[in-house]
Write a structure and sequence with these properties.
Number of strands: 7
Shape: globular
Distance between the termini: 28 Å
Radius of gyration: 18 Å
Oligomer: single chain
Strand order of the largest sheet: 3-2-1-4-5-6-7
Number of helices: 8
Structural class: alpha/beta
Largest sheet: 7 strands, parallel
Helix content: 40-55%
């Protein structure tokens, strides 16, 4: 299937590694012009990796999505280099793993800035460009924890629900502008972030990381964690013209890990 992404301009945030990098790579494979950003100095290396593998025009930007000025600069740099913006994928590193009683209010505020307000600011900055696009799309990256809370991830469980509310609301408000807004809800996918979570779980339980990972895969009907490229395939499809009538959807990519019916 031709996804219709040839020449489209996509910006993926927090894309130096993990799900963000896998998504940026898949956009490039589909012929899109890609900008990616990260708060660390790894953005240039990730862009070079993708450029080398695909031959695509890839822009690496250093931008911390908790800083409004960095967001504005990343959006302007993307539109300036490629002549516009068609697709925005809002991604951010996950907030810390801990139980409610162990989290102070300052940590809550930082998690809100990282997980919710980064998406708000990115979308606000991108809207003038997206309104000029012939095939505009926004994808928020959240988690299946919005439907099935994960132990010791109260920050993610709580604040990502607000991102879902934002996504659904914007799918209605921006629909008349032909801007589609969807969210993708990954389950357990083996990335650097999951490595960190397995370490934190092991430290609390006294088990090994491997034992903690085995306990998780036992809850997934497919019997394993996902691979970043499996997530990326779905993310890129949702943003593509091939999904032109998909709007306001919260789609799990979790191997059947979520046990609910809605």
């Amino acid at each position: 299937m031709d996804l219709g992404l040839q020449g489209k301009v996509a910006l993926v945030t927090a894309a130096s590694k993990g799900l963000g990098k896998a998504t940026a790579l898949q956009f490039a494979r589909e012929g899109a012009q890609v900008a990616l950003c990260a708060g660390s100095g790894l953005a240039d290396q990730a862009a070079a990796d993708i450029r080398r593998e695909t031959g695509a025009d890839v822009l690496g930007l250093r931008a911390d999505v908790t800083r409004p000025e960095d967001i504005e600069r990343a959006i302007d740099a993307t539109a300036g280099k490629f002549g516009g913006l068609d697709i925005l994928v809002t991604n951010a590193g996950g907030p810390p793993s801990a139980s409610f009683v162990d989290i102070d209010l300052d940590t809550w505020q930082k998690a809100v800035d990282l997980t919710l307000l980064s998406a708000v600011r990115l979308i606000k900055a991108a809207l003038p460009h997206l309104r000029k696009s012939a095939a505009p799309a926004i994808l928020t990256m959240t988690s299946y924890s919005v439907r099935q809370p994960i132990q010791n991830l109260v920050l993610s469980n709580s604040i990502r629900l607000a991102v879902i509310g934002l996504t659904k609301t914007l799918s209605q408000e921006l629909g008349p502008d032909r801007i589609r807004v969807n969210s993708i809800l990954p389950g357990w996918t083996y990335t650097e972030r999951v490595e960190e979570l397995m370490g934190a779980r092991a430290a609390r339980s006294g088990k090994t990381r491997e034992e903690e990972a085995a306990g998780i895969t036992a809850t997934v009907p497919l019997g394993r964690m996902g691979r970043p490229e499996e997530f990326a395939n779905v993310a890129v499809f949702l943003c593509s013209p091939a999904a032109s009538f998909v709007n306001g959807v919260m789609l799990q990519v979790d191997g059947g890990g979520y046990k609910g019916t809605m």
